[in-house]
Every structure is written in C-alpha cells, then in structure tokens.
Automatic annotation (TrEMBL):
Homodimer. Keywords: Acyltransferase, Amino-acid biosynthesis, Branched-chain amino acid biosynthesis, Cytoplasm, Leucine biosynthesis, Magnesium, Metal-binding, Transferase. It holds the Pfam family HMGL-like. Residues 37-310 form the Pyruvate carboxyltransferase domain. Residues 444-561 are annotated as: Regulatory domain. It is an enzyme of class 2 (transferase). The gene is leuA. Its EC number is 2.3.3.13. It comes from the Bacteria. Catalyzes the condensation of the acetyl group of acetyl-CoA with 3-methyl-2-oxobutanoate (2-ketoisovalerate) to form 3-carboxy-3-hydroxy-4-methylpentanoate (2-isopropylmalate). This is 2-isopropylmalate synthase. It is found in: Cytoplasm. Belongs to the alpha-IPM synthase/homocitrate synthase family. LeuA type 2 subfamily.
Length: 561
C-alpha cells in the first residue's frame, strides 16, 4: 500500500468529524418530495455579494425581471443598509419594479440598530416585505468573532427582534419577518432552538403571518443525512411550529448542497433559499434550477418556470459575469450530448421506441429529461468522435439528412468514420460525415463505372423485360443489355454479362429523400460477388434509377479501376 502524502496523513489531527445527531426515530429517510417548497431567490443578495464586480442597477434590474418571469414569489433583493446601490435598488423595485401582488420583496440586515433603521427607510411603501435579520450563532463565531457566550448572542437576536417588531408596528404593519441563526451548521442544535424560540417569543407569529426561520448551512460541513437530521430535529422541537415557515439556505462547500436540500425538504423544511445555477459565496449557494428540475423529473410540478433554460443561462451569465461549465446539470453545453457508441445506440433506439409508443411518459435511456422541456433541442444529442458507434452515426445522418442506412451498411460505414476520427483525434461534424457518405457511396469520384441512362422494353413474353443501359466504363461510353423480371433484375443481368462475373442482390431498400430543392429517392443495394458482399447507394429523382445507380455504386466498390 502506498504511503499517504505528509499533508494528508495529518487529517486526523487537523480536522475533526462532524458529530452525528441523536435521532434514532428519524422519519425523513422514508419520505418523498411530493410538492414544491416556497422558493426564495437570493441571487441579488447572497449571489451578488460573492461577485468580483457586484451588479449595478442595470444588471440587477435584468436579474429581477428574470426572477419575476420565472415566478419566484419571494426575492431577496439586497442588503439596503450596506450600500447606496442596494438601497437605491430596493427603492427602484418598490417604485418601478412592477412587483406582482403575490410577491414579497425580502431584504437582509444584521442585528444592528443603525442598520435596522436604514432598512426600514428603504422599505417605505413596499407591500408585505420580508425583513430578514440574522446574527451568527456558531460556537466558533461566538468565541472568535463576537467574544460572547450563548446568552450574549441570544440577546443580540432578541434585541433586534424587538426593534424590528416595534419599527414594523410604527410603520403601520404589513411586514413579514425572517430570522437566520447564521452559521447554523456550526451551532449546537439546542442553542439554535433556544435562540429561535426566543425570537419567536418577541415576534409572536400567527398562522396568518408566519415567521420564517431560515437555518443556513452558511458553511456546508457534513454529509446531507446529518443536515437532514438537524432539520428534522428542529422541525419537531420548535415552539408553535404551525406558525413557523422552516427555511433552508444551503451552501455547497462539500459539493452536496442539492442533496442536502432535498433531504432537508424530506426532513420537514417548507422553503428553500438559493440562487440560479448556484452562484454564491465560495462554492456557491444551492442551485435552484437543478432542484426544480430534479423535482420535475420526479413528476412534481416545481412551481418555477425553468422551461427556457438557455434564456435563464444568458441572463445569469450577463448579470453575474460568470460562465456556466459544460457539464453543469440540465444547462451545460454538453449535458444532452452523447459521444459514446453504446449511449448513442440506446438513445437512438429509445427515441424511436418513444415515437412508436406515442405515450406521454418520457423513457429514453441516458436522458433523464426531455431536452425540449427546457427549450433545448435534439440537435446536439449525438455528436461523433472516436468513441462513437454505428447507432450514433446512423442517428445524425437520419436527423440531419433524412438517411435511413440499413444496419449492415451502418456497420460498414462506421469503420470508415472510425478510421477518420482515430486519425484526426477530434469530433467529426455531421456535414463531414454526410459528405464522406456521399463521396464514398454516391458520387464516387474516379470510380470505374458511371451510370448514364437506361430504357426498359418488353419483347415476346410480357413477363420478361429487356433493359438497355448506357454507362461510362473508364470514361468510355458502353451499352449493356440484360433481361429480367423487372428493371433491377434486367440491369443486374446486363452488368453481370458486361463484367463476366456472378453477381446477385443480397439486400435492397429505398426511401424518399429531400436533396437540394428536389424530392428524390435513395436506394441502398447490397450485392453478393465472388469476394463477398458490398454496399452501394444511389440517389435520383426516379426511384428505379436510384436503384440502378446503387448497383453501379456497389460494383464500383469491388471492381478494379
Ligand atoms: C453569511 C452571509 O452571507 S451574511 C451576509 C454578509 N453580507 C455582507 O456582509 C455584505 C454587506 N455587508 C457590508 O457591506 C458591511 O459588512 C456592513 C455595511 C453591513 C457593515 O459594515 P461595517 O460595520 O463597516 O463592518 P463589518 O462588516 O466589518 O462589521 C462587523 C461588525 O459587525 C458585527 N456583526 C457582524 N454581523 C452581525 C450581525 N449579524 N448582527 C450584529 N452584529 C454583527 C461584528 O461583530 C463586528 O463587530 P465589531 O465592529 O464590534 O467587531
Ligand atoms: C444571512 C444568511 C442566511 C446567509 O447568507 C448564510 O448563512 O449563508
């Protein structure tokens, strides 16, 4: 066994495991998410405060318009006591933002009197805004940031709650309240409960005006199951639970914010705060788009409109000046694309089966969601490189050019494409695959034979047809004649005589095709000759002629030039 690197070997002395929650009768593992939570976007606050260049009015307004269009009913629009930009934006939302009746604007404030006063100034005239106040409660922050014991920290929250309740009364009511024991994940559960209950005692929430307790994973510190235990424990133990909206605010430090949120919802949370595609401090807030689409793909209406994911991405990238990686769930450039052969084959078959089944149920291997449901197309589902197989090549030729290659031709042509992708070591665009097919099977530049024309006539017995064809053989015009039951049969007879070798049709298929501006037909012909089997293809406006061209094409592929 190899020795750990010295830094890694220090793990046990430098870091400690997160303690488990004593909750043997936990209920969340056997529950399912059946309804959407209340969603609150914090893009304009937590997302914004993490940006290299925070948004100005223009970018904020654009983000706000998107969030409204996505049907968020709660949006944290800023920290109005922190900066003039944030203050002005709150005023703009109230005065010009076109806030729908059913929407509450939310603002964040620390438990500091001067900041609370300024916050209320910013909210004048807002309809049922949410005043979100917070203070840090974790053991570490109590010790190193605030230098206070539990009672001191609780007093900060209680004093702020009192001031906020009084200011709200003075302003004539109509406010909603949210309290966050910030750094909840670093706080002992009994203290989180104590401080929340103390705040509730001041605010006195009712069923009509419920108090939001937001339990933030300010830093994600544990596995999602422990997060769920914490939420279930709080949900069970909070006083007057019916008058409380229990909210999650997960960050993604361990990369498991989505999982932690989903388990937190199973554990009894009613509400989720997060951001689009997970922008936010450090590794980000929880990604609300992914959460919503995870619900959607489990058959639950998420209550958010995420049906134009590219449009959402565009606004996200403009406002945050951040790019979304190619593999990001549901939205990344490559998430609906398969390069590998077996995936392509299964997707191709799945899409065909879905067409036949004509059922509303989405069942396509490797595609957990129908790309069309989020405004993406099937165009990029399959792309071809050296990992691709015949199914994928057949799919792109079908999807983009309407070619239905017979299975054995798919096998043969795939080998050709594989050689090219191996040589070039990169993706092959569909146009090049199509051009290669046409060059190899249809146009055949430099080939020995070229079809020119033919006529058929009957002679004597009406069941026999005589085919007289004109061909170029190494550039020289030749006439060939044969007999048969039909044009194909007669032409086969004629070309067999001309070559002086045995030939027969092993397989034949044909379908119509739109090539250029003309409707035409394509024929695929597999011929058996002394040395084996070979495919040819022919395209012509006349279906019979396309099949004779396909015979010539197949012959060209085994005769010497
Ligand atoms: C996890 C989160 O995302 S919380 C949200 C964090 N967001 C932000 O901080 C963005 C906006 N903030 C700001 O612009 C500034 O921090 C301001 C304007 C709010 C305050 O600025 P300043 O007072 O100049 O400085 P600063 O933020 O360093 O203040 C820290 C002080 O506030 C105290 N404090 C911090 N948070 C809180 C709180 N929630 N409630 C009460 N006091 C708090 C600290 O203990 C510290 O006190 P001290 O000065 O006695 O040591
Ligand atoms: C203010 C709180 C909710 C916060 O942003 C956090 O804890 O991450």
């Amino acid at each position: 066994m190899s020795q750990s690197a010295p830094v890694m070997a220090k793990a046990a002395t430098k870091y400690q495991p997160y303690p488990a929650v004593d909750l043997p009768d936990r209920q969340w593992p056997s529950r399912q998410i059946e309804t959407a939570p209340i969603w609150c976007s914090v893009d304009l606050r937590d997302g914004n405060q993490a940006l290299v260049d925070p948004m100005g009015q223009d970018r904020k307004a654009r983000m706000f318009a998107l969030l409204k269009a996505m049907k968020f009913r709660e949006i944290e629009i800023g920290f109005p006591s922190a900066s003039q930009t944030d203050f002005d934006f709150v005023r703009w939302c109230i005065e010009e933002g076109g806030v729908p009746d059913e929407m509450s604007l939310q603002v964040l404030v620390q438990c500091r009197p001067e900041l609370i006063t300024r916050t209320f100034e910013s909210l004048e005239g807002a309809q049922r805004p949410i005043v979100h106040f917070y203070n840090s409660t974790s053991e570490l922050q109590r010790r190193v940031v605030f230098g206070k014991d539990r009672a001191g920290i609780r007093q900060i929250a209680v004093d702020a709650a009192k001031m906020i309740a009084e200011m709200a009364d003075k302003a004539g009511g109509g406010f909603r309240f949210e309290y966050s024991p910030e750094s909840f994940t670093g706080t002992e559960l009994d203290f989180s409960l104590e401080i929340c209950n103390a705040v509730a005692e001041v605010i006195r929430p009712t069923l009509e005006n419920r108090l939001i307790f937001n339990l933030p994973a300010t830093v994600e510190m544990s596995t999602p199951n422990i997060h769920a235990d914490q939420i279930e424990w709080m949900s069970r133990n909070l006083d007057n639970r019916d008058a409380i909206i229990l909210s999650l605010h997960p960050h993604n430090d361990r990369g498991t914010a989505v999982a932690a949120t989903e388990l937190g919802l199973l554990a009894g949370a009613d509400r989720v705060e997060g951001t689009l595609f997970g922008n936010g401090e450090r590794t980000g807030n929880v990604d609300l788009v992914t959460l919503a689409l995870n619900m959607f793909t489990q058959g639950v209406d998420p209550g958010l409109d995420v049906s134009d994911i590219n449009g959402i991405k565009e606004v996200y990238e403009y406002c945050n000046q951040l790019a979304i990686p190619e593999r990001h769930p549901y939205v990344g450039e490559l998430v609906y694309t398969a390069f590998s052969g077996s995936h392509q084959d299964a997707i191709n078959k799945g899409l065909k089966a879905a067409k036949v089944a004509n059922s509303p149920l989405w069942e396509v291997p490797y595609l957990p969601i129908d790309p069309k449901d989020v405004g993406r197309s099937y165009e990029a589902i399959i792309r071809i490189n050296s990992q691709s197989g015949k199914g994928g090549i057949a799919y792109v030729l079908q999807a983009d050019y309407g070619l239905n290659l017979p299975r054995s031709l798919q096998v043969e042509f795939r080998e050709d494409i594989q050689r090219i992708t191996d040589d070039e070591g990169r993706e092959l665009p569909v146009k090049r695959i199509y051009d290669r097919f046409v060059e190899r099977y249809v146009d055949q530049p430099g080939a020995r034979f070229e079809y020119v024309d033919h006529i058929t006539r009957t002679e004597g017995q009406k069941t026999q047809r005589i085919v007289e064809a004109t061909m170029l053989d190494r550039g020289q015009e030749v006439q060939i004649v044969g007999r048969g039951t039909g044009a194909i049969d007669g032409f086969m007879d004629a070309i067999t005589r001309h070559l002086g070798t045995d030939l027969s049709v092993a397989d034949y298929s044909e379908h119509s095709l739109q090539r250029g501006s003309n409707a035409s037909a394509i024929s695929y012909m597999e011929l058996e000759h002394d040395g084996g089997r070979v495919f040819g293809a022919g395209i012509d406006q006349n279906a019979t002629t396309s099949s004779l061209r396909a015979i010539v094409s197949a012959v060209n592929r085994f005769v010497d030039n």
